[in-house]
Amino acid sequence: MHVRIINQRLKALPEAVVADSSVRSLQFAGNALTTLPAALAELPALTDLGLASNELLRLQPEVLSALGGLRALSLSGNQLRELPPSIGVLRLLETLALGGNLLQSLPKQIGECVGLRMLNLSENALQSLPAELGALRGLRTLRIDANPNLERLPDEVCDLERLEALSVAACGLRELPERLGALSSLSTLQAKDNRLVSLPASTGALKRLRTLGLSGNRLVELPPELNDCAALRMLALSANRLRALPPLEALSALDELRLDDNPLEALPEAAAFPPRLRVLGLSVCSGVRALPAQLGTLTQLTQLSAGACRLASLPHSTCELRALTTLQLSGNQLVALPDSLGLLAASLTALEVSDNRLATLPDPTCNLVHLRSLRAAENQLERLPDSLGDLAALRVLSIAANRLHGLPPSIGRLSCRCLP
């Protein structure tokens, strides 16, 4: 039997619930319990207990000890400051959600919950983690995000050989374990918004890693071993302290690379970028004065963001990016766009060139028949192309703060909204 009573602000379990020994799943989130009801011990068939968003202050050990048949336990969004050692009795538990509490530590008995596959510890006040976490050899997902006083992970975390997803964003981590590469099943590592200054060389041993999120750290360089992560598809490095990039062409599966807001002094040649790249973010890299001359060789690129750099011109090969749908170049020093821009007609849907020094938009802009958004505000435009009205797909046009003396008559054919 499944019972669902949520968001009723009840302070106790209804008697009818605890009187039914066939209850297997009890979802009682959004109520006002302050302690575990002793009556839970009278539900021998209970395997799934959801008590998220109550007002739990503590878990009575004697009640917890009577729930050995649980496979899923959700206690997120309460006011728990500690877990009793009796948590180790829950050996069949597969999912344990403890996010959004006030936990500062975990008992070592957490390592006795050997059935765990998912453990969520996000949004607590953890200052350390017990080495016994490494005993949870069946764990697939471990979330520890938003524990701002957690400066390191125990080395034993690297014993979790079946771990597929590790999320430690917005903690206070200053380093990742040197044995990180021992996590041979890891496919997702999210470690953004920490204080990392480097990555362990063993990162290169993560052969199944597909997503690596490292934005918002203090990285000054990348280990060359990163090129050995052959399965990597997304690499986020925004808002770090990178001044140069090592060649990344060996990351043949990579299709998204985020480098925005780094003090990059220059970009390597296009040949040093992954050949299958689809998304490239370079915005707010104020030291970048030029894009690679052979940028057009990245034939699968669909999104290029290079706003707020110091670009004075675009390489003509930009117009060879025939799969490009979004070109974001606002906040640069561009004085002209290439006449070959019309070659992007088959794919381009968004062109953003606001806050540059453009005196005109090239007439081939009007060949971009799929263009839905054209943002060219805050330039030095004195005229718009006569055939602008041919852009039948256009829905957003931003041309404010220019030097326009008038608008072409064809603009009346547009069914778009003009933005300031």
- What number is the mean pLDDT? 96
Low-confidence stretches: none
Order of secondary-structure elements = EHEEHEEEEEEEEEEEEEEEE
The shape, in one word, is elongated
How many β strands by DSSP?
19
Number of helices: 2
Estimate what percentage of residues fall within beta strands. 5-15%
Ends: how far apart? 59 Å
- Largest pleated sheet: 19 strands, parallel
Helix content: under 10%
* Radius of gyration over C-alpha positions, nearest whole angstrom: 28 Å
Content-based structural category:
mainly beta
Topology readout:
Elements: E1 2-4, H1 15-18, E2 25-27, E3 48-50, H2 61-64, E4 72-74, E5 95-97, E6 118-120, E7 141-143, E8 165-167, E9 188-190, E10 211-213, E11 234-236, E12 256-258, E13 279-281, E14 303-305, E15 326-328, E16 350-352, E17 373-375, E18 396-398, E19 417-419
Parallel strand pairs: 1-2, 2-3, 3-4, 4-5, 5-6, 6-7, 7-8, 8-9, 9-10, 10-11, 11-12, 12-13, 13-14, 14-15, 15-16, 16-17, 17-18, 18-19
